[in-house]
Amino acid sequence: MTVPTQVLVAAQYDIAAPALFERARSFGDLIEATRRISNYDGLPESDMEEGAVYKTNIRILGLVNCNDYEIKVNKICRDTLRVETLESNNVVRLWSHHIQIKPTETGSIWVDRVIIDAGRMTPVVARYARFMYRHRHLSRKGTVLEARLGKSSRAVTPQVPLFHPAE
Fold first, then answer.
1. How far apart, in whole angstroms, are the C-alpha atoms of residue 21 and residue 100?
2. How far apart are the two ends of the chain, measured CA to CA in Å?
3. pTM confidence score
4. What is the number of other CB atoms lying within 10 angstroms of the CB of residue 1?
5. In whole angstroms, what is the distance from residue 118 CA to residue 89 CA?
6. pLDDT tens string 81-121
7. Cα atoms found within 13 Å of the Cα of residue 11, Cβ hemisphere only
8. Measured between alpha carbons, how far is residue 79 from residues 21, 50, 51, 82, 85 in Å?
9. Domains within the chain, CATH numbers bracketed
10. What's the Rg (C-alpha) of the chain?
11. How far apart are CA 165 and CA 167, in angstroms?
């Protein structure tokens, strides 16, 4: 049995937090920020909608197909500038993604925190995730502050959210 891995990537932006939050919930922004490394077939270029489920086939680095990938948008909160998705397919059992935008005096910080369980493939998938999130931030002209992997300290399933309101 493998232990899920946590990926944490944070980047500084010279953009106000509300504007950066709008980018965080936009599939069009995701598609543009990753166009050099990923192709999302069937994913709309619109904003995410809370409660919606999106299906896509992803081609990674022109070499690897990640078919029948499902993205469920669990939470979009404008007040706390958070987006939470639960993602999976036949290889990735769990990709629980939490985005938090934090205002600063000079702009904002975007934090991606992801818990990944892909069975024996978890170490490879987690390293790709760290690479991909760093790439996204650099493509958006963000300054990456942190990009690390670690063991998940909490069991996460579709029934148990990654973050609780008290956090």
1. 8
2. 28
3. 0.88
4. 5
5. 9
6. 999 999 999 999 999 999 999 999 999 999 999 999 999 99
7. 21
8. 10, 14, 17, 8, 17
9. 5-151 (3.30.530.20)
10. 15
11. 5
